[in-house]
Amino acid sequence: MTPETAFDTAPPKAVQRWSASDYARNGRFVHELAGPVFAMLEAKPGERVLDLGCGDGALTAEIKASGADVLGVDLSDELLAVARMKGLNVRKVDGHALDFVSEFHAVFSNAALHWMRKPELVIAGVARALRPRGRFVGELGGHGNVAAIGTAMRAVGALRNGDPALVAPWFFPTVEEYGRLLTEGGFAVKEIALVPRPTRLRTGMEGWLRTFGRSFFDQFLEPQRTAVLGEVIELLRPSLCDTNGVWTADHIRLRFFAERVA
Ligand code: BEZ
Fold it and tell me: What are the structural domain ranges in the chain?
């Protein structure tokens, strides 16, 4: 996912816009590497499942293929349009303001919750949306996720008078922090772990930065934007690019399975 807003009591502030073509090219790993969390969901025929932060619907389609009745929600019009073209049932809804009541057997979320920076609101909405004993199964960036990438962006941003709030608009919690949020939000946490998952980037670091770091780079006008991008890439090269020119992102996932307390 794919929120375009940072939700607060104040009006939403634009944070991230998505290009469906960039996402398809540079973000393929997001659903290709989702096997473990998808397996934890164990969606069954006849179940109602909410895919929170469905993006272009790559995993929503897999949930549908399992026989479940799935609704995908996201904030990106562009990615939702792609999901609709796949024949999926999707809707534009802010993850901070889910308005479903006891409708779903399970809520699933992959690589979306780290864009939602008011996790208490998200978890409260998920709990409301689930039936008693309903499952909340998800994966998001965990503490330390893309630490090198974030540090390089911060360093270059500081030299270029960038807005520090735009450097890393993500929420990467520890096991303890997210476990506590789930428990306080009415869930019994059955499994939760940080999982290092170095990710080979087939379209290089530039593709990753252009797609997932867009809120940061968009604050600069050309030709400064291209220069900033180049500086971030060169700062990262010694740690994330091997001698064959292959880039790896320092991804760490937080994966969990929780059950709504009846
Ligand atoms: C991630 O999937 O780890 C990620 C996605 C976007 C921004 C930062 C991290």
Answer: 17-145+170-200+250-260
